[in-house]
Amino acid sequence: MESTHSADSLRELARDILDHAGASPTNAAIVADSLVEANLRGHDSHGVLRVKRYVQFIDEGRLDPAAEPEVIETRGAALLVDGRRGFGQVASRAAVAELVPRAHALGIASAAVRYANHVGRLSEWVEALADEGLVALAFCNADPTVAPFGGSQRRLGTNPLAWGAPRRAPHPALVMDWSTATMAEGKVAVARARGETVPEGVLVDADGNASTDPNAFYDGGALLPFGAHKGSGLSVMIQIAGGALGATGVFGGAGAGDNGLVVIALDPTAFTDDFEGESEALCEALASDGVLVPGEIEQRTRAQRVRDGIPLPADTWSELLKGGARA
């Protein structure tokens, strides 16, 4: 069974729970807004489902909810953002804010975010940069949950990758965000909460046997990479770069939920006079064939959920109510 809730009510409840857990009002608002926006875009795996886990990290001392990130100047266009074991969304937001003026001034800027908890949807950060007229790439590693192609043990993270690019106003930015696993772990959690199975080819159980039962993953199984060896190879490269630059290590495990995030921003005006015209020409050609462009499904889902409300599985709503009662 599912229930439907307004975005405002979920933001308020998530803020209250995080505030009670020790987050500053600003941090609680940033994280709650990020989670609810994920729900609005249809990515429930990165929505308020995460509140319970964040509170658990806080209770276990793995996440400092009051931590404020530190921006460290490194070299030229490169920045290092120390999340100080705080919310990944807060550290990522700080990185984006620093990248915008630098990318416009220098033509390119990059940031690595270290010692930060779960950073949420990567698309949030590349979209924020694209909204400022920048082309953006982001990737991060995660704790091992994925068996590489040819293996059966958890060696890789879900290791997502995201792109963002501006379009000509009033069109929203082009945004692509995908996990290098066949399915993000959070979506497996959503399936379990709904009492559903997952498609074939998503995961294996603890013995390395194919399974469609979400519980098999949480009983010691592993996710599988998308695209066989291609997704597996991409995941390896992200794990090395994100793990080494983001200080989580190439094997993960620096702290539950930690991500090593790398973000690169380019100012297209440093390379061409008509980037948005070119991107718009392609989008119009695709639209003439009835093809949706990256980010369009999420924009449609957002409009529908703003109007009709956000559906939540009964288990997710129950856990939020428990957290709200403690707050």
Key descriptive features of the protein:
Ribosomal Protein S8, Chain: A, domain 1, 327 residues, 12 strands, three-stranded antiparallel beta sheet, alpha+beta, seven-stranded mixed beta sheet
The CATH architecture category of the domain at 68-273 equals 2-Layer Sandwich
SSE order, as H and E? EHHHEEHEHEEEHEEHEHEHHEH
CATH superfamily caption of the domain at 68-273 = Malate/L-lactate/L-sulpholactate dehydrogenase, NADPH binding domain
User: pLDDT under 50 segments (min length 5)?
Assistant: none
Task: Identify the strand order in the major beta sheet.
Answer: 2-3-4-11-5-6-7
The total count of strands amounts to 12
Helicity level: 40-55%
Structural class by sheet pairing and helices = alpha+beta
Q: Report the span from N to C terminus.
A: 25 Å
Kindly report the CATH topology of the domain at 68-273: Ribosomal Protein S8, Chain: A, domain 1
Query: What is the CA-based Rg, rounded?
Result: 19 Å
